[in-house]
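User:
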Amino acid sequence: MEFCVRILLTNDDGVYAPGLRALRLELMKLGEVTVVAPAGEQSAVGHSITLLTPLLVQEVLDETNQPLGWAVEGRPADCVKLALLELLREPPDLIVSGLNAGSNAGINVLYSGTVAAAIEGAFFQRTSIAVSLEYTKPKPLNFGRAAQLARAVIEQIMAHKPSGGSLFNVNIPSLEKGPIRGVRVVPQNVAPYAETYDRRIDPRGRVYFWSGPSIHCPDPHPDTDVTALSEGYITVTPLQFDLTRRELLQEMQGWNLK
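Assistant: Predicted structure:
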């Protein structure tokens, strides 16, 4: 069933990433897909945008030499801004960011360029969905199967006709774990992650640090995206970009700050 006529597809892994290409093929079953994505890898850039250098744009063809969209020498958020303000003839009905190589659950949502692109779409009052695939081994990922699962979830979300500006974060568990157990709608985990840095010395005797490859959540809160994902469920989390802490805002009205 077709719910979306025009779809903008972006990511943070770059316009040539296999996850984006696989998801595009699936989204084409729902409507017309236009890609506007970074020219190269932009993982973990968060919601940064480019201000002091030009945003170079180049048209890109797909595997059959048909127009795919545009590669942008910028950040994921730049791509969505340019798409909506300059590149697309008509506004999209849906913005999808992904399919990311690696999950974006828990506090990783705050660092993710994938999620940031979706947030940018929500700024413009477009329904926006970030989609990521967890991996547990450094081996080729089954993006084709993951894209099928992602499309099925996106289709179900759109069937409920979410209001403009609705924002969703979808994570697909590693397919190495076995059959998908189902779909769960859960909140974002906010428990701290365990991170490490490798301390090294360069040839000139200067100390430098390299972020360790293992970032995990040792004590996640129950019934959140991190725990459900680890149990083999596809997770769907509705997000918002309003960071105001409203209960404290009300209390602060009586602080009489001067």
